[in-house]
Write a structure and sequence with these properties.
Elements lengths: L17 E5 L9 E6 L7 E9 L9 E4 L3 E5 L7 E9 L11 E3 L16 E3 L3 E5 L11 E6 L14 E5 L4 E11 L13 E6 L5 E7 L10 E10 L9 E8 L9 E8 L7 E10 L7 E8 L15 E8 L2
Bound molecules: calcium ion (3 copies).
């Protein structure tokens, strides 16, 4: 404890007045508090000492700043209240009482993140990943992130990494945004970023013929041949009912109403990405077919009992050469 009696030759018991200024740090600057005080009116002032502590009137070792009336305290921690006082001393090292005490603290700020990167569209039930960036703590502390998946702060992610994923279960348009906070001083939180508009559609199955093979040698009219075919659900949602894959005889590669049905098979319900087959189906080449090149077209969900993400990708064909 400093306990200097003030029985001094020149009795330099001089009230000091401090004016405290906080320098709001930029990203590159250090945490600092700038001090200024009125000069002592004593006749033989030799210098000043700055005292600083985290409890009122309980200071650490003083800093002898010389005969100046301003000083900047550097390297301070944010969110800590510093209590500061000054004394003056004369040419024979007699020291005054403390000045009035002032207190201040370094404010920490975290800049807001950039608008999120990630897909502006998706489907229900599927995970979507979004990433933010461009944020920082002015004190260079590490930061954490929170995502607002709806844009009104009613569907918030946990605080965590700059890249987080969301699975929406309801179709709609969502305004996704993010904010950052200091990982050490978690009450220091940035504003929200701008919003990324994300449109989520209802997920659906999508049936296709994934493989179709048949005879590679010429076939005769009326001949029974074996087709090998696989039907796949490449969509993001399961089918829940049986579907029918049919095989048609065609003079062109396009399935049309007039094409001749050769045969069919039943395909059970398929989960997302599941494949039924390959399965062999025997069909008979039309007896009236004349020599030439024909097409056998397989059609998934040919009776259209399943609403699909795409109804126009359900066919696949092979060519067959007929010779007597
Ligand atoms: Ca389809
Ligand atoms: Ca046709
Ligand atoms: Ca369909």
């Amino acid at each position: 404890m400093r306990n200097t009696p003030l029985l001094l030759r020149n009795s330099i018991v001089i009230p000091l007045i401090l004016f405290l200024t906080l320098l709001f740090s930029s990203i590159e600057s250090v945490a600092q508090i700038k001090l200024a005080w009125d000069p002592s009116t004593g006749p033989d002032v030799a210098g000043y000492r700055v005292y600083c502590g985290i409890a009122s009137r309980t200071y650490g070792a003083p800093i002898d700043v010389g005969n100046v009336t301003t000083y900047t305290l550097n390297g301070l921690s944010p969110a800590v209240v510093y209590n500061i006082a000054v004394t003056t001393y004369d040419t024979t090292n007699n020291e005054s009482a403390y000045s009035n005490e002032v207190s201040g603290q370094i404010p920490e700020t975290v800049s807001l993140p950039t608008v999120l990167g990630g897909s502006p569209s998706g489907i229900t039930g599927a995970s979507n990943t979004y990433t933010t960036g461009g944020f920082s703590s002015n004190l260079k502390h590490s930061v954490q992130f929170q995502f607002d998946w709806k844009g009104d702060a009613t569907d918030l992610s946990p605080w965590g990494s700059a890249s987080q994923s969301k699975t929406w279960t309801v179709a709609g348009t969502y305004k996704v945004r993010a904010r950052a906070r200091c990982a050490t001083h978690t009450s220091v939180v940035s504003s929200w970023s701008g919003s990324l508009s994300v449109t989520i559609a209802v997920s659906k199955p999508d049936l296709i013929i994934s493989t179709l093979t048949g005879p590679t040698m010429p076939v005769a009219p009326g001949q029974v041949i074996t087709l090998s075919e696989a039907t796949k659900n490449q969509g993001s949602r399961a089918t829940t009912v049986n579907t029918v894959t049919r095989f048609y005889w065609s003079t062109n590669s396009t399935y049309e109403a007039g094409d001749v049905l050769l045969g069919q098979r039943t395909v059970g319900p398929l989960t997302a990405e599941a494949i039924s087959g390959p399965v062999s189906t025997s069909v008979k080449i039309p007896t009236m077919a004349v020599s030439g090149t024909y097409y056998i077209i397989a059609v998934a969900d040919s009776t259209n009992v399943v609403a699909e993400a795409s109804e126009t990708d359900n066919t696949k064909y092979i060519t067959v050469n007929v010779s007597p």
